[in-house]
Design brief:
Length: 327
């Protein structure tokens, strides 16, 4: 039997209930919540209830709560149908359908298209009696938006991994080739931070760009985002990406795309790139690019960048005067 962690999956619905209840009713809800939670055995007593509670929820519960919580108390007392029972029953069919869909998606990730480690992670999700993580990993696809990608790292369509990052890079590659078709050589710059997998994602992206005939300038190690922006302009690149999730927790990573002016993607390129990424299927991603089109950036670019930074220093004399200040 499939077990679902309701504490996670139903949290949004529980919040909706709380929002429906007026301030005067909150005391009642809090006082009786434990009693309400114990009444989930009602469907055994009233087998027909399960067939109607979904519609009952949709049509009546909001109006009843907004109207008068005492009516809810009478319903609970008379029929033994608790708010949570109604909620769970209303969601049960939806979640079973959702579970079937995510299992089908996960099964696709067991094909030879995906590497052995990824297949192993997906199989563990499928074998787990608690389907919460499986659902969260596959219930949607991580979307490439105007800010790029951002998400928890792991296996699945809703996770940051070499396949979701790869789809973003393949879509960007396709758009660059369309937009700069007249250039003899399209080029991009790639940077990353110190997060787990940032180097892996950067190297994978460089390979994909190269496989699409695009020259990739890859920083040798972590670099600040402003230096990536500078490198795009200094090298005359048409685009650039950086793997970073800024202030997000350590479980996250992100992918930001930049244009030839060194700024993040803006209209109309943002929507056009999003459209290209949306077309990509796993089998469309070209992972095996030649190292001949990948050039490593290091100290030389650092020196140029720092020299330009110093030129815009507001008070260089202050820096010189206090250069020996100890922390």
């Amino acid at each position: 039997m499939v077990r679902i962690n309701w504490a996670r999956l139903a949290k949004d619905d529980l919040k909706n209930i709380a929002d429906f209840i007026s301030k005067d009713s909150k005391f009642y809800a809090e006082r009786h919540i434990d009693k309400i939670r114990t009444r989930t055995q009602v469907l055994k007593k009233y087998p027909q209830a399960g067939k109607v509670v979904s519609e009952f929820w949709k049509e009546n519960i909001r109006e009843l709560v907004l109207g008068n919580y005492r009516i809810i108390y009478e319903i609970i007392s008379d029929s033994q149908i608790s708010i949570l029972t109604i909620l769970h029953s209303a969601r049960e069919m939806e979640n079973q359908q959702l579970l079937n869909e995510v299992r089908a998606k996960a099964q696709e990730w067991l094909s030879p298209t995906y590497d052995e480690q990824t297949r192993k992670e997906v199989q563990q999700l499928l074998d787990n009696d608690d389907s919460t993580e499986l659902i969260d990993s596959f219930y949607r696809s991580l979307e490439f938006g105007t800010g790029g990608l951002r998400g928890i790292m792991g296996a699945g369509t809703n996770r940051m991994n070499i396949y979701t990052v790869g789809a973003a890079t393949q879509g960007l590659s396709n758009y660059l080739k369309k937009n700069f078709a007249d250039l003899p050589q399209i080029s991009v710059a790639i940077g990353h931070d110190c997060r787990n997998n940032s180097r892996l994602f950067s190297e994978s992206s460089a390979k994909i760009f190269a496989a699409n005939g695009i020259k990739a300038y890859l920083f040798e190690d972590l670099r600040p985002t402003p230096e990536l922006s500078y490198a795009i302009r200094e090298l005359g690149c048409q685009s650039g990406i950086i793997l970073t999730a800024s202030h997000n927790p350590k479980e996250y990573n992100g992918y930001k795309a930049y244009w030839d002016d060194g700024s993040q993607i803006v209209a109309p390129h943002d929507e056009n790139i999003v459209a290209e990424v949306a077309k990509i299927k796993p089998e469309d991603i070209k992972f095996d690019g030649s190292d001949n089109l990948i050039e490593i950036l290091g100290e030389e670019m650092d020196k140029k960048f720092l020299a330009e930074v110093k030129k815009v220093s507001i008070s260089p004399e202050v820096i010189a005067r206090h250069h020996d200040i100890k922390r």
